[in-house]
Amino acid sequence: MGRPRLGEHPLTKTERQRRWRAKQRLEQSASGSAGPVRFIQPAATGSMPEWYHARLAEVTGERDELRQQLDQLRRNLVALGEVCFGCGKRGHQVGVMFGSSRGSVRMRVCDACIVRLNEKLQDIRQAQPAMDNR
Ligand SMILES: [Zn+2]
Fold it and tell me: I want to staple 84 with a disulfide (CB 3.0 to 4.6 A). Which of 95, 98, 110, 116 is the partner?
């Protein structure tokens, strides 16, 4: 139970009960049946008892959940490093961040700034129609 988890969030009561029951099943099965169940190879899953498959499914589920959390954390990390040149907001503070890279120079601009700059451009074009011919 006390095992620390990545991206920790408090367990619900139901989740705690589910884990406790799974642990009880595991211990009952391990002590009840003869033989070193802890050392059975995963390759022989066809002959494994029910509790093994239950535990395997549980662990696999936890692993997939952690992988998803890790992916999200990586995406957040990338987003944190992106700053809009127009308003200075960071990737996680905007809807969409656009950008281009030229060598080591990475230029980023957010969706709100593109809308704002486009409006300015429309104003300038209305004031100076000749600009369209350049
Ligand atoms: Zn911006």
Answer: 110
Question: How far apart are the CA of 123 and the centre of ligand 1, in A?
Answer: 19
Q: How confident is residue 57, by pLDDT bands cut at 50, 70 and 90?
A: very high
What backbone torsions phi and psi does residue 15 show, to the nearest 5 degrees? Answer: -65, -45
Rg of the chain on CA atoms, in Å = 28
- The distance of Cα 9 from the centroid of its chain, to the nearest Å, equals 14
Rounded distance from Cα 84 to ligand 1 centre (Å): 5
What separation in Å is there between the alpha carbon of 92 and the centre of ligand 1?
Answer: 12
pLDDT of residue 120 exceeding 70, the answer is yes
- Judge whether 123 and 131 are in contact, CB under 8 Å: no
Of 68, 77, 98, residue with least CA distance to 86: 98
Domains of the chain: which residue ranges?
12-31+48-80, 83-134
